[in-house]
């Protein structure tokens, strides 16, 4: 018997330029060109921000399910997906860089530019980005924890290569991960033990 397709066509009555849509998609694709400082395990290359965003979204989803956390999964995933979009214009700022506190200014300007793209169908892109940057929801709280531990995990599995490359101190890593103790104590306990090990291995400067 012939196979019949009962799906409705993916069309609507809006006069949308497909050229605008494809241009916006290429703008998003530019996140692949933004290199981070973390090395991809079992390779000699750095990860890019698009890879990190995918990893972040998947990790948040998995942890939320595994720990049966009371979070809105759709909101959580949207926060994760927009988290690094501002880096398309601003680039990635190293966690331990001196100018990190001002990085959000240029990143938000990049989000505003993407929001104004004619081919962008996400009406609240800036709002979602602002939530992940400054919000206090349970979803944002989880996002910040996972975003912080992913590069930590990569460091632990590449012999602390990024830390060694940049002369990172034990106190810097401990300080940047201290907030996790309030929101996810079990993860913070694990991180503290890993910091001890990394210091013993000479991956972190002990001072």
Please give the count of helices.
Answer: 11
Beta strand count: 2
Strand content: under 5%
Task: Please give the order of strands in the largest beta sheet.
Answer: 1-2
Radius of gyration: 20 Å
Approximate shape: globular
Concise structural overview:
This protein is 58% helix and 4% strand.
Tell me what you see in this structure.
The chain is mostly helical and 207 residues long. It has a two-stranded antiparallel sheet. Helix 3 packs across helix 6 and helix 3 packs across helix 7. It has helices at 18-29, 49-66, 73-82, 87-90, 103-115, 125-134, 138-156, 161-166, 170-177, 180-183, 185-200; strands at 35-39, 46-48. The protein has eleven helices and two strands, in the order H-E-E-H-H-H-H-H-H-H-H-H-H. A hairpin with a 6-residue loop joins strand 1 and strand 2.
List keywords for this structure.
207 residues; 58% helix; mainly alpha; 2 strands; two-stranded antiparallel ribbon
Please outline the helices and strands.
Blueprint: H1 18-29, E1 35-39, E2 46-48, H2 49-66, H3 73-82, H4 87-90, H5 103-115, H6 125-134, H7 138-156, H8 161-166, H9 170-177, H10 180-183, H11 185-200
Antiparallel strand pairs: 1-2
């Amino acid at each position: 018997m012939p196979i019949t397709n009962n799906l409705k066509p993916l069309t609507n009555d809006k006069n949308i330029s497909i050229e605008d849509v494809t241009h916006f998609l290429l703008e998003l694709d530019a996140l692949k060109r933004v290199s981070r400082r973390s090395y991809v395990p079992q390779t000699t290359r750095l990860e890019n921000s698009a890879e990190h965003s995918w990893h972040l979204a998947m990790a948040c989803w998995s942890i939320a399910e595994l720990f049966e956390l009371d979070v809105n999964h759709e909101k959580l995933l949207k926060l994760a997906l927009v988290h690094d979009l501002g880096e398309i214009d601003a680039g990635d700022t190293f966690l331990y860089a001196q100018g990190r506190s001002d990085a959000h200014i240029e990143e938000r300007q990049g989000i505003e530019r993407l929001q104004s793209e004619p081919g962008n169908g996400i009406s609240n892109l800036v709002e979602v980005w602002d939530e992940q940057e400054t919000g206090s929801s349970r979803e944002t709280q989880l996002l910040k924890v996972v975003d912080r531990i992913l590069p930590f995990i990569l460091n632990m599995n590449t012999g602390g290569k990024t830390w060694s490359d940049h002369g990172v101190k034990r106190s810097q890593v401990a300080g940047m991960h201290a907030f996790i103790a309030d929101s996810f104590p079990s993860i913070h306990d694990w991180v503290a033990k890993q910091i001890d090990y990394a210091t013993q291995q000479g991956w972190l400067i002990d001072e």
